[in-house]
Design goal:
The complex is a heterodimer of chains A (about 100) and B (about 425). Chain A is α/β, with parallel strands linked by helices and about 100 residues long. Chain A has five helices and four strands. Classes of the chains: A alpha/beta (about 100), B mainly alpha (about 425). Chain A: Keywords: Kinase, Phosphoprotein, Phosphotransferase system, Sugar transport, Transferase, Transport.
Chain lengths: ~100, ~425
């Protein structure tokens, strides 16, 4: 089971991306647990997931979050802004799976 | 790209963004912002009731429905206003506890205890008991800035005491729940040793409560916040940040919320007192007039995308139209992309500035009512605009006009960008064919 955490300002637009990623995972028969949160929940949640993706509108938080994620050995990255805008669930999912396996 | 725009983008990317990034990750700023967000549902429901108490009809209206509503609002005024009085009317109470709760969470301390402490501290300075009653006068809009300061002070105090291990030492055998209840003793005493004497001194010296004293200091800033230049600066800053790919509305809105709520409090007080309503800059004004469809007032751009000849833009248009109606526009901003796109920079900044100027003028000249109520920011703009202005249906017309104007502003730049994309799409097609 892959557990992915998505994080943006209020968890509003990421939840649209979550829906697309869930659909892509279902199409490809991949088991997935995925959750969208706002930035203030990051610290409490990161521990329970395999990796974290940030929405491009909060890419400035990467500097704060990366040391925390690194100390827990969780990969973290910012979603490609074009994929984010196009709600390209399949592409983001594949990039994420690579990130987890790497 | 000209050297001017390169310099401009450089300044945004290298100077404004990092500062904004740091500001928006700052513990106290986050606590204040999240405290306001947590208080919002109370304020939305409460201010909704205000609209029932003040029907949008003239007293001599011939319409039976209007007469019935006016009669009811008159007869049951007290009952109708109760939800308002218990929410908006004492909003600073909710804000004081919610900010303390969030700041305590940031310090990994017990949020409930911090919230209770802050609530007590705020009541001590803002509502000292007189004749067996708590005066509510300073618990509404007037108390907001005091609530913020008291919440930060009391939680910092608690944090300081905890960090330096100042408190009652109970033996290990005492159950944690009981030990917890002892943890608050020292902070409560500390409040009575610090804030309470300060409040007494101000009452004695200036014959007013702390919130009134703070408001008299803030008065010039608050009235300045309600001017067109202040609004335009806020709009400009928010959009420069968005252009750099940073969620500008969260940062600018988070800071402005205290002013917005104070302005709203004054408007509502004037309305209930039968005085003319005068303040303009309140969240619904920003949300439903300035940034229709999301930051950048992108509704106009999305409408253009829907009928674009570029496949890419048409796709974005279809993806964006539904979320856009609810003022969520990340798909347009990152999909187009608008972010760091020199072709869309001018309209993205100008459309909201023009909207702000027109809506400000329309409100000041009474072409539309002032904002007197809150609506959730995800309400579609025409509905949200009518709702928050006390069901003023001229607000819907204003929204339509503003969408029309922003569509015109976006149009030439949209055409340039479309031409560029069509060129690229043709090139990919020929490349695919010749391969």
């Amino acid at each position: 089971m892959n557990k992915i955490l998505l994080c943006c300002a209020a968890g509003m637009s990421t939840s649209m991306v979550v829906q697309r990623m869930e659909k892509a995972a279902k199409d490809q028969g991949i088991e997935l647990e995925i959750k969208a949160i706002g930035i203030e929940e990051f610290q409490q949640e990161i521990d329970k997931y395999d990796c974290c993706l940030l929405g491009p509108q909060i890419k400035y938080k990467l500097a704060d979050f990366k040391p925390i994620a690194d100390s827990l050995n969780k990969p973290i990255s910012v979603i490609n802004s074009m994929d984010y805008g196009m709600l390209n669930g399949a592409k983001i999912l594949n990039d994420t799976l690579k990130l987890i396996q790497a | 790209m000209s050297s001017f725009s390169e310099t401009l983008f450089g300044v945004i990317e290298n100077r404004i963004s990092p500062v904004a990034g740091r500001l928006s990750s700052q513990r106290h700023v986050i606590a204040i912002r999240d405290g306001f967000i947590a208080s919002m549902p109370f304020l939305i429901v409460g201010s909704f009731m205000l609209l029932f108490a003040h029907p949008p009809f003239a007293a001599n209206s011939q319409w039976a429905f209007a007469q019935w509503w006016l009669g009811m609002a008159d007869r049951y005024a007290e009952q109708i206003m109760m939800p308002y009085n218990m929410t908006m009317g004492i909003m600073a109470l909710y804000i004081a506890s919610a900010i303390a709760y969030n700041l305590a969470q940031g310090y990994k301390m017990n949020g409930f205890m911090a919230a209770s402490l802050s609530l007590m501290a705020f009541l001590v300075v803002a509502a000292p008991q007189t004749n067996k009653g708590l005066p509510v006068m300073s618990l509404g809009g007037e108390g907001i800035f005091t609530a913020i300061m008291v919440a930060l002070f009391s939680t910092e105090l608690m944090h300081f005491l905890q960090k330096h291990n100042i408190g009652f030492k109970l033996p290990e055998q005492v159950p944690p729940k009981i030990r917890q209840s002892f943890d608050l003793l020292i902070p409560i005493i500390a409040i009575f040793l610090t804030l309470f004497p300060l409040s007494l001194w101000i009452q004695h010296q200036f014959h007013m409560l702390l919130p009134q004293a703070i408001m008299s200091i803030f008065a010039p800033i608050i009235s300045a916040s309600d001017s067109l230049p202040a609004i335009l600066i806020a709009v400009l800053l928010c959009h420069l940040l968005w252009f750099a790919g940073i969620h500008g509305a969260v940062i600018v809105g988070g800071i402005l919320q205290a002013f917005w709520l104070t302005n709203l409090g004054i408007n509502q007080q004037d309305l209930t007192a039968g005085q003319p309503v005068t303040h303009v800059f309140i969240e619904p004004f920003w949300q439903f007039f300035i940034v229709i469809g999301g930051s950048g007032s992108t509704m106009g751009l999305v409408l253009l995308y829907l009928r674009s000849r570029s496949a890419h833009l048409r796709t974005i248009g279809k993806l964006s139209i539904i979320p856009g109606m609810f003022n969520i526009n990340e798909p347009v901003i990152f999909g187009s992309p608008v972010v760091m796109n020199p072709l869309l920079f001018i309209p993205f900044i100008c459309a909201p500035l023009v909207n702000a100027t027109i809506a400000y003028t329309a409100t000041r000249t009474e072409l539309v009512n002032h904002v007197i109520s809150l609506a959730p920011w995800t309400t579609p703009a025409p509905i949200g605009a009518a709702w928050s202005t006390g069901w003023d249906f001229r607000a819907i017309i204003l929204v339509a006009v503003l969408v029309g104007i922003s569509t015109l502003i976006y149009y030439p730049f949209f055409r340039m960008y479309e031409r560029q994309l069509l060129q690229q799409e043709r090139e990919t097609l020929t490349a695919a064919e010749s391969a």
